[in-house]
Amino acid sequence: MRASVRCSSQFERHYRNLVLQTKIPTYTERDQIVTTDNLTHTGIELEIRIGTHANPSAMSYRIGLVGKPSVGKSTFFNAATMNDVPEGAYPFTTIDPSIGEAYVRTDCAAPEFEKTCQPSVGACEDGTRFVPVKLVDVAGLVPGAHEGKGLGNQFLTDLNETDVLVHVVDFSGTTDLEGESTEGHDPRKDIDFLEDELDAWYLDILEKGIQRYADRHMADDDPEDVLAEQLSAFGIIAAEVKQVILGLGLEVTPMEWEPEERESLAREIRKRTKPMVVAANKMDTPEAQENWESITDDPEYDHLEFVPVSAHAEKALKNANEQGAIEYTPGDAEFEIVGDLPEEKAAGLEQIQSFVERYDGTGVQRALEAAAFDVLDLKAVFPGTDSGNWTNGPFRDCFLLPADATAEEFAYHLHSDIGDGFLHAIDCRDSRQVSADTVLEHRDVVEIISTNQ
After folding, report:
1. For residues 10 and 402, is the Cβ–Cβ distance under 8 A?
2. Helix (H) or strand (E) holding 313
3. Which of 61, 128, 406, 427 could form a disulfide with 432 if both were Cys (CB 3.0 to 4.6 A apart)?
């Protein structure tokens, strides 16, 4: 089960979205990152790099973590980033969006070239590369957020500055819509709740676009152009708007659409521009496992990607690993106890072991990777050298790019000057020259030949 996410150019959409999202300029220089500071108290992310050219496309993808109070969202965030974000069973534990660095995994290319990689960011362990992404813990999801309730517009603004959402849902049914403790709550209500809030938000903006078109349609503006301008904050262009309209079997005549047709259009645009993964949390409980079977078999949710998760288990394993009690690599479906543990802790780890064996891990890492690789359809690309001579060490970098990114776009991703001087690229696996418009594949190793190197 996954959302179908397609547009005319994923690379152009990502670049445009990053320009819209940038609050403070990001300065880049190839191969060297000096420092990254996250100003979580103000909700502003500041990433400073050496250089003279701003290159928004080189910024990390941003995964938005969202969920109602008390479902384990902050525990998930802490487990993924090991940051100290307050956790608690009450609304607005997280007041401002907390921004941390998490990672998605891909097979490292270095062993194929008989090299040992030297990552400039992230890490590599036993041939698995951990590539950084930004994880944003967005606060304020309560009923009526689109009307300004709770943190209201700030919640929606923070949420819109992400590329994809991970919706943390308490599948055990022990928290109600307000985040209060209960029993027997249907997780479907939580899933519907977020989608309904977002759909209402999109509909409100769409209605303004329709009114805007009505006020100026005598000027011979195409409807999709006016609507796309109104919806531009969501990173959608006129051609995509028209594609969605026609895909729903509607005429491109906004003034004739019925209310339910406008609602369907808003919902479809939301699915395309704000895709999401459902992290089914607390799956280590019998109630959650029962709910999992019924919900994931429900055709009403075929457009969503579901991942079974125990955020508490992931955090416990990482803590135990840091303390030297176990050896654990995030995302693995197994770990080894290497220290002497009290009987109670050993019993707890045995329960976690049973869970990760059943579900192939705790699910935290898989949820992030489902968002990056399944929903956004990203690919990992390694800068390489065909000669085998590495200036700053082998396989320092691994970048996440949209599925349709070309060799020339990769050059611009590295640096605007390199893109401006692009001549051709070389596929380092077979020493084959590739042209500017060649679409790169996942895990390609590519050398860029440019006049500006």
Report:
1. yes
2. helix 311-322
3. 427
Q: Helix, strand or coil for residue 63? A: strand
| Helix pair 238-247, 223-230: axis angle to 10 deg | 110
Q: Which stretch of DSSP H or E encloses residue 103?
A: strand 98-107
Spatial distance between the Cα atoms of 108 and 384, rounded to a whole number of angstroms: 12
The answer to whether the beta carbons of residues 17 and 240 sit under 8 Å apart is no
CA 382 to chain centre: 20
Residue 261 and residue 251 in contact, taking contact as beta carbons nearer than 8 Å: no
- Tokens standing for 453? 């190197």
- What is the DSSP secondary structure assignment for residue 359, as one 8-state letter? H
Q: What are the C-alpha distances in Å from 358 to residues 86, 159, 185, 363, 413?
A: 30, 33, 25, 11, 40
Query: Domain 198-272 belongs to what architecture?
Result: Orthogonal Bundle (1.10)
pLDDT tens sequence across 146-158 = 565 555 467 777 8
- Residue 63 amino acid letter: I
> Tokens representing 431?
């020493």
At the topology level, CATH places domain 10-184+275-375 in: Rossmann fold (3.40.50)
DSSP string, 124-163: EETTEEEEEEEEEE-----TTGGGT-TTHHHHHHHHHTSS
Structure confidence by residue, pLDDT tens digits, 182-227: 999 999 999 999 999 899 999 999 999 999 999 876 667 899 999 9
CA angle 295, 73, 292 (to 5 degrees): 15
Please state the pTM of the whole predicted model.
0.82
- Under CATH, which number does the domain 380-450 receive? 3.10.20.30
